[in-house]
Write a structure and sequence with these properties.
CATH class of the largest domain in chain A: Alpha Beta
CATH superfamily of the largest domain in chain B: VC0802-like
Radius of gyration of chain B: 16 Å
CATH topology of the largest domain in chain A: Rossmann fold
Mean pLDDT of chain A: 92
Helix content of chain B: 25-40%
Number of helices of chain A: 12
Shape of chain A: globular
Bound molecules: zinc ion
Distance between the termini of chain B: 21 Å
Radius of gyration of chain A: 23 Å
CATH topology of the largest domain in chain B: VC0802-like
Order of helices and strands of chain B: EHEEHEHEEHE
Shape of chain B: globular
Largest interface: A-B, 18 and 22 residues
Strand order of the largest sheet of chain A: 4-3-5-6-7-8
Low-confidence stretches of chain B: none
Largest sheet of chain A: 6 strands, mixed
Structural class of chain A: alpha/beta
Oligomer: heterodimer
CATH class of the largest domain in chain B: Alpha Beta
Number of domains of chain B: 2
Number of strands of chain A: 21
Strand content of chain A: 15-25%
Helix content of chain A: 25-40%
Distance between the termini of chain A: 60 Å
Structural class of chain B: alpha+beta
Largest sheet of chain B: 7 strands, antiparallel
Number of helices of chain B: 4
Chain lengths: 434, 144
């Protein structure tokens, strides 16, 4: 088994990597300042010239780019390649407003494929593996991106796309799929359908690896999938603006490696835009160092996470980004402190006395923000003694205070009484804006 | 001594402090023709626990559970109170001397005078000590 796709780059000493990043950043900035009206204007507004970029940390001087910039310039006004240089389009359906269009040159596709080739190799896949690609093929980047990455490492691709789950399971068995790439919820669905068909994925298939992403999931879900299906499950990350799925965890399963020669990662405070230290939680901001058709400088993806810049146990020197913990859009500011509903979700998961559903009610009491978290008391922890219940409430308040760094009032409610949501939850009632 | 016949099944119900919750519980039990013989409400800031003795505890539990209530059975005992001052003190002293803790208590007026419902941490021990002290324990069959 191959350990690294490109050991020279993947295990390059940090200083050399950073020198490489600096060179790439410098030439990117000069190119865009000279040839892209969009970036030229942005940099003029920010009063920064390419000559001001004298070391890697000078990236902080550059202007940010937002999703709305892509929408405002629909479909291709900020592309920096001509039409005859483009070889592909992908389109992401915006849930609000216009979709965003991403164009690719042949070099862009090569960079994307290389990124995935390294990633798939880092989870132990390669020649001899059969990779079932159960991401959607089409305008969505998941299917085609994974397809090319898997072919590049010499694996055999089984391009099943999404749907017709029983047939997917038959093919998985008949063709001996060793890995599957899909959303975690689709893999759970496959597991359930397989059980109904009398197929034990653990015993009756060759499956041992899952490359799962394109929707938020948790470590708890990972454990459940791994135990149930007898596979190793790896997180994959990417958005269409970055090309598509780009980065995965390595076998260490401690966050996904972002290849430094492809992308420069910053974690910033979403409120102030200030850069944060490694390990602090903030908004993921990415500069794609090698992209021709749709370059990205300091693109604010809106995902909240932390970065670990230590050399990984696998030997790779490239930084790791932890599992995405929330969206900037969901962020609440309580007494000046950033609070994410996902933090509450994680904290509650570790408290068996209450359920995982919750509701946040924010009010202004006098000059201060007051946050109330309503959770359901489970049947098992209900007691006829009022003090036992008060203790549960205190425990939840204590745990939430510790993980959020803000005072929280907890209200225990009857089981099943909180609203349930399909998909993206609306769990926050913010009465301050009324 | 057969202590079991003195063990009474109380149903305990978690309730948010919202108007109408108690009425809703009473209504649900009424629909099943379940009679509430005694009850008390313990309230804390934001929630309460309703404790009730009913004639059909299993049926009451199932009905409330099916409606989504957080409901549990609790073993309690019932002591007939002498109609004279100091009755409660005597019971408390007997149990205290035996190292039995009273978690909570509530009273109701039975047909033949006041009855004290006790929730203790050691039910068997409490029954023996109260019997030995000469006080009257009500049997489970009085309730259900
Ligand atoms: Zn690693």
């Amino acid at each position: 088994m191959m350990k690294s796709w490109d050991p020279r780059i993947e295990e390059m000493p940090k200083e050399d990597l950073q020198r490489m990043q600096y060179r790439l950043l410098k030439s990117l900035v000069y190119r865009l300042y000279s040839f892209s009206p969009f970036y030229h204007d942005r940099m003029r507004e920010q009063n920064v010239h390419p000559d001001d970029i004298r070391e890697l940390t000078d990236v902080k001087k550059l202007p940010f780019m937002f999703k709305r910039d892509l929408r405002d310039n629909y479909p291709d006004k900020i592309f920096t390649s001509t039409k005859d240089e483009l070889v592909r389009y992908h389109v992401s359906s915006g849930t609000t407003g216009k979709p965003t269009v991403v164009g690719y040159t042949q070099n862009d596709l090569n960079t994307w494929t290389t990124s995935l080739a390294r990633a798939l190799t880092s989870v132990g896949l390669g020649r001899g593996d059969v990779i079932q690609v159960s991401y959607g093929y089409g305008l969505f980047t998941g299917g085609l991106g994974m397809h090319y990455g898997a072919e590049r490492i010499g694996a055999t691709v089984l391009p099943t796309s999404v749907g017709n789950t029983e047939r997917q399971i038959e093919l998985m068995q008949d063709l001996g799929a060793t890995a599957i790439a899909c959303t975690p919820s689709y893999l759970l669905h496959i597991g359930e359908v397989a059980e109904k068909m009398g197929v034990d994925i653990k015993k009756d298939t060759e499956l041992r690896t899952g490359i799962l992403g394109a929707e938020p999931w948790t470590d708890r879900m990972r454990t459940r999938i791994e135990d149930w299906l007898g596979i190793k499950a790896y997180d994959i990350y990417g958005t269409s603006e970055l090309s598509g799925p780009m980065f995965t965890e390595c076998v260490e399963q401690k966050g996904f490696h972002v290849w430094s020669d492809i992308a420069l990662v910053e974690i910033i405070d979403p409120k102030t835009g200030e850069s944060l230290e490694s390990g602090q939680k903030g908004e993921l901001t990415i500069t794609i160092l090698q992209k021709e058709a749709l370059p990205m400088i300091r693109y604010r993806i809106g995902d909240i996470t932390t970065m670990d810049d230590e050399v990984c146990a696998c030997g790779r020197t490239h930084p790791r980004i932890q599992r995405i913990q929330g969206r900037v859009d969901d962020m609440l500011i309580i007494r000046g402190i950033n609070v994410f509903p996902s933090q509450i979700e994680y904290a509650l998961m570790a408290i068996p006395e209450v359920g995982q559903h919750f509701q946040i009610v924010v009010e202004r009491k006098g000059a201060l923000d007051d946050m109330l978290v309503r959770v359901e008391l489970t049947k098992e922890s209900f007691s006829d003694k009022i003090n036992d219940i008060i203790q549960v409430r205190q425990k939840v308040e204590h745990r939430l205070r510790n993980s959020l760094n803000v005072n929280v009032t907890v209200e225990l409610v009857e089981p099943g009484s909180l609203p349930r949501f399909e998909g993206k939850s609306k769990r926050v009632v913010d009465k301050r804006s009324l | 001594m057969d202590t079991q016949k003195f063990v009474i099944r109380q149903i305990s119900i978690f309730s948010e402090n919202r108007p109408g919750r108690l009425a809703a519980i009473a209504h649900a039990l009424g629909e099943e023709n379940i009679n509430i013989l005694a009850f008390s409400i313990a309230e804390a800031n934001g929630f309460g626990v309703v404790r009730a003795l009913v004639d059909y505890p299993e049926k009451a539990h199932d009905k409330l559970f099916s409606l989504g209530y957080n409901v549990a059975f609790t073993d309690v005992i019932a002591v007939r109170m002498k109609d004279q001052p100091g009755g409660l003190y005597e019971v408390a002293k007997v149990l205290g001397d035996a190292g039995v803790n009273i978690e909570y208590s509530y009273a109701y007026s039975g047909k033949e005078g006041a009855v004290l419902i006790l929730r203790v941490d050691q039910v068997d021990e409490a029954i023996k000590k109260i019997k030995n002290s000469g006080a009257t324990l009500l049997e489970r069959s009085v309730f259900h």
